[in-house]
Amino acid sequence: MEQLNTTEMQTAADKKKRSIYSLELHEIKDWLSKNGEKPFRAEQIYDWLYKKRTTAFEDMSNLSKGLRDKLTEQFQITTLKTVIQQTSSDGTIKFLFELHDGYSIETVLMRHDYGNSVCVTTQVGCRIGCTFCASTLGGLKRHLEAGEIVAQVVTVQQALDQTDERVSSVVIMGIGEPFDNYDNMLSFLKIINHDKGLMIGARHITVSTSGIIPKIYQFADENMQINFAISLHASNTELRSRLMPINKAYKLDDLMKAVKYYIDKTGRRISFEYGLFGGVNDTVPHAEELATLLKGIKCHVNLIPVNYVPERDYVRTPRDKIFAFEKTLKNHGINVTIRREHGHDIDAACGQLRAKERKEETR
Description:
This protein is an alpha/beta fold. It has 2 domains: 6-76, DNA polymerase, domain 1; 81-362, Alpha-Beta Barrel (TIM Barrel), CATH 3.20.20.70.
């Protein structure tokens, strides 16, 4: 058998270690106490990770060598290998990152007038099976560790450090269903929101779900100030079941009950993501039906002109129909906007770059 060299052995060992980015501050304090170290060192470690953004424990110069050795032995500082980086004419940057096990994920940096936003991925692939989405091609491979989600934001921030910019907001709308990886998603939220961490304000973070109803109730009970969105995409349950198979397990009527519980519990407005698919869900009667469905609900509708995905059959809704749909909702008193397009000249649709470049993962 061929002998592994030292570098290969170290890489294999690192793959078995937990990501230090997966630990909340109190968890690092607990670990320090159990390992004979002072709990206050946790804040120093967080400072190195999230303020100085070091990539090696040995660089943490205000920690003892003994502590640095313990950290190196038990944890890794997750690094993501950039396979492809696409830059759009509007400044949007899409990254295809490779993980330690060879799987790939997408992360997107979007530039707005109000700051830089990062769209993160929570799973390798997706099992939800939405018929319009490239992310679900090939199904679910595995969940991401909390630290692998955190690493996406840190990696983008490290790139922005070169121009003295910062990540000001995060959306959890990349590959995967966040509520299908609930515990890791929740840890991620707490880590990036912490004032000793990346310090991204709760109201600058948005999480979206396709509608896993039990987790919506659970998330409402967390009582966080995170922005919350539902991928709706249909005005009635039959159409939604056709577009989104999850609706067969979690019916639209039950989803709306969960939405009302969330609003009553938190007092916060909810957003509905509504992708417009030409000739499928984009007519004025659909808009009328949607307005009836959302009547009396404290919400905002985000209309999304879909990006064409070669692996899917849906086409883009013409501009005049988009505006007619928007006008109909407004006439019914529904708060609505048309999402500004980002990365129209690159592989902008979620999962599209991975589907094109990593065909073995998405068959």
